[in-house]
Amino acid sequence: MKLWTLLAATATAAVLMAAPAAAQTRIALVVKSLGNGFFDAAAKGAEEAAAELGDVELIYTGPTAATAEAQIEVVNSLIAQQVDAIAISANDPDALVPALQRAMDRGIKVISWDSGVAPEGRQIHLNPSDIDLIGETIIKLAADYLPEGGDVAILSAASTATNQNAWIEAAKAAIPEKFPNINLVATVYGDDDSVKSTEEARGLIAAYPDLKAIIAPTTVGVVAAAQVVTDQNLIGQINVTGLALPSEFKQFIDNGASQAVALWNPIDLGYSAVYLANALVEGQEAAPGATFSIGKVGEVTLDDTNSAAMAAPFQFDKTNIEEFSKIY
Amino acid sequence: MTDMITTGRRLPDRLDNPVKSAALSWESLLVLVALGIFIANSFASPYFLNAWSLSDLTFNFTEKALIALAMALVIITGEIDLSVASIIALASTLMGLALQYGADTPMLVAVGVGVGILCGAFNGFLVTGLKLPSIVVTIGTMSLFRGIAYIILGDQSFKGYPASFSWFGQGYVWWVISFELVLFLVAAVIFYVLLHHTNFGRRVFAIGNNATAAQFSGVRVDRIKFVLFCLTGLMSGIAAVLLTARLGSTRPSIAQGFELEVITMVVLGGVSILGGAGSIIGVVLAALIIGLVTFGLGLLNVPGIVMSIFTGTLLIVVIALPILWRMYKERRA
Q: Which of these, B229, B269, B199, lies nearest to B70 by C-alpha position?
């Protein structure tokens, strides 16, 4: 019976995998989906924090499909395992709430990080950054290399993308006061699709001959724009910048199509999430105004919805892209 | 002389020994598999044998299993319905819309179930009225129904369902026995009687084995198929009520990918994908097995991708097994 062999093998594997539970704090880092470089990097930071804190056992888990329903199954199994804390990057801010409330009813501490859960479904939310910091950073990335000022354009994701729209609003708000000689001439939408983003970038270059920088606050758009600038031999004339994954973007820092890009540092994010979860397990109260230490990253203060912003986006340029491109 | 011949030969009323054939049946294989996984789980994780864990486990499959009951009948007639997950999305979205206009709990349930039946009837009309192949029709309506949900909701969500509504997806009838589980068990009994102990059920099998012969024997093939599509719609509508209540919110991406999990349950339950054979007990056992496997591996924090590999392998092995067995017997004969 093949089935029995299979079952026996699974059972054996299962027994081997069930590590002996010591008297430790068990913190589960739940991600949107496994097999994603960003979250693997976060798990790396979380492991680091667990090692620093000493008696913390980290459980890194998540579904294969990035759906709320699959994530609820993961949360249910963590509730059954009676973990001490769950730190989750949620696939849906609302759908996870009932499952996480059940976790809290059974004495499990719950925080969300990266992608948040509605306030009633968690005790703390850790944002990688905040809208104003991101908006300001994306303009600063262009302005730093334009001492004389000049025309810049934004290549965004979908026109309905909530995150990008909020960042662009914040960027527009920051320009008059902090970057008076930067002139934002257009905002176009590439829908996070390589082909559409490439066409939109070509359109921008054709329509605005004095364009000095393209700012793409999306990892898909920024690569498309840098590729267009490279293909059209405009390196040195147009600087591409925005939010980019170092591993995908390294070649464009190397060839000079871009001076610098930024993104939140997922390693610090996973690290800080474990520190926050551990503080709650140790009895610290989550309340507006409370200050939490997040180890080497510093400290955060909770606002009136119990959420906190970790730091400004982390900048990658020629000096550090090599190192980070190996991580995520 | 003739007396001697008749007494000398025993004519059995069936060819197989009934005890032996029951022992070799699909259902007993599934029972063994389920027991094996249950025992393996109990040994593998100290948290498995706990009333609340076992209760949480049932939430992993009840909604999909409810649809699988009706899907089994559709597949037995040789048709298929790939639009069930999209029916959930549309029903859930329209429930959310009704909520915005102040609908109360009974009204919300009526909307969810009603939309389900209407979507099913639409599928049924296209298949039986226009004589289109069901796989083509339901691939189309799979995009159509979810598309409407996306048009209504975009990247927004509906939330704020009343507590009395949430009870359908989160409430317990008694101790750890959830409403979802009770509903599933009741539905399973109804479908068991319908398929195995009514004329309607006999006709479903007749259509699956030979639709033309069934037609000429006086079976109203199209009407039965139409009713079956309405039934999968109805069960999808009920699943939409349960899932929406459990999640407490609606997004157009709700229940993404459920159709394949439902079909996996049906096929694992021994229903022939070519039609004509299958049983409700098998489907119920298959749902239980998939629930046990995913929850058991989840307790060990096995990554989801390994779980998919496991369910995929389980499906192939269980389907290949009887075929290999038949080949082995033919070679010996």
A: B229
Which structural domain range is residue B275 located in? Answer: 62-279
pLDDT of A171 above 50: yes
Homologous superfamily in CATH for domain A131-263: Response regulator (3.40.50.2300)
pLDDT tens-digit map of A276-298: 999 999 998 888 988 898 888 88
Considering the segment(s) A24-129+266-312 as one domain, its CATH architecture is 3-Layer(aba) Sandwich (3.40)
Amino acid at A147: P
Residues A232-284: tens digit of each pLDDT:
999 999 999 999 988 889 999 999 999 999 988 888 999 999 999 999 999 98
Domain boundaries, chain A: 24-129+266-312, 131-263
Mutation target for A interface from B146, B249, B314: give the one with most A CBs within 10 A: B249
Same fold, A24-129+266-312 and A131-263: yes
Is B75 within a domain?
yes
Asked whether residue B164 is assigned to any structural domain, the reply reads yes
| Total residues found in chain A within this entry | 328
Who among B36, B59, B308 is closest to A64 (CB)? B308
- A53 at interface of B, judged by CB pairs closer than 8 A: no
Q: How many residue pairs bridge chain A and chain B with CB atoms within 8 Å of each other?
A: 135
Q: Is residue B285 part of a domain?
A: no
B236–chain A nearest CA distance, Å: 16
- Name the amino acid, one letter, at B316: I
Residue B126 forms part of a structural domain:
yes
Averaged over B274-284, what is the pLDDT?
A: 93
Full DSSP string of A152-201: EEEEES-TT-HHHHHHHHHHHHHHHHH-TTEEEEEEEE-TT-HHHHHHHH
The residues in B 185-244 lying below 8 A from A, measured between CB atoms, are 243
- Given CB atoms, is A116 within the 8 Å cutoff of chain B? no
Question: How high is the pLDDT of residue B1?
Answer: 46
Candidates A64, A70, A80; nearest CB to B47:
A80
Is there a contact between B52 and A69 if contact means CB atoms under 8 Å apart? no
Number of domains into which chain B is organized: 1
Q: How far is A132 from chain B (nearest CA, A)?
A: 22
More confident residue, A300 or B134: B134
Burial (Cβ within 10 Å: 0-12, 13-18, ≥19) of residue A298: exposed
Chain A residues with CB under 8 Å of B59 CB are 72, 76
Query: Is residue B78 a contact partner of residue B211, using CB atoms and an 8 Å limit?
Result: yes
Distance CA B25, CA B27 (A): 5
Count CA atoms within 13 Å of residue B269 on its CB side.
Answer: 29
